Amino acid sequence: MTPDFSAATFKTSSRTDGTGTCVEVAVVPGFAAVRDTKYRAGGHIAVPARSFVAFLRSVVAC
């Protein structure tokens, strides 16, 4: 199954430094997508929600 992010709202991190050097994240049922704030037309990377949660947990643990 390919997730549909066409109607998803991508949100920029509240930690962005104001220069656009950040990523944006969108969530649809079962999946999360990440894209480059400076190059939105470049597409996004979609991963299963469980994998994204595991990634976030590992980053927070650092």
Give the mean pLDDT: 90
What count of helical segments does DSSP give? 1
Sheet with the most strands?
A: 4 strands, antiparallel
The separation of the N and C termini measures 32 Å
Gyration radius, in Å: 12 Å
Q: Reading side by side through the largest sheet, how are the strands ordered?
A: 1-2-3-4
How would you concisely characterize the structure shown here?
This protein is of the alpha+beta class and 62 residues long. Helix content is 21%, strand content 29%. It has one helix at residues 49-61, and strands at residues 11-12, 23-28, 31-36, 45-48.
Features:
1 helix, alpha+beta, 29% strand, 62 residues, 4-stranded antiparallel beta sheet
Task: Describe it.
The protein is of the alpha+beta class. Helices cover 21% and strands 29% of the residues. Strand 3 (31-36) and strand 4 (45-48) form a beta hairpin. It is flat and about 35 Å long.
Reconstruct the topology from this structure:
Elements: E1 11-12, E2 23-28, E3 31-36, E4 45-48, H1 49-61
Antiparallel strand pairs: 1-2, 2-3, 3-4
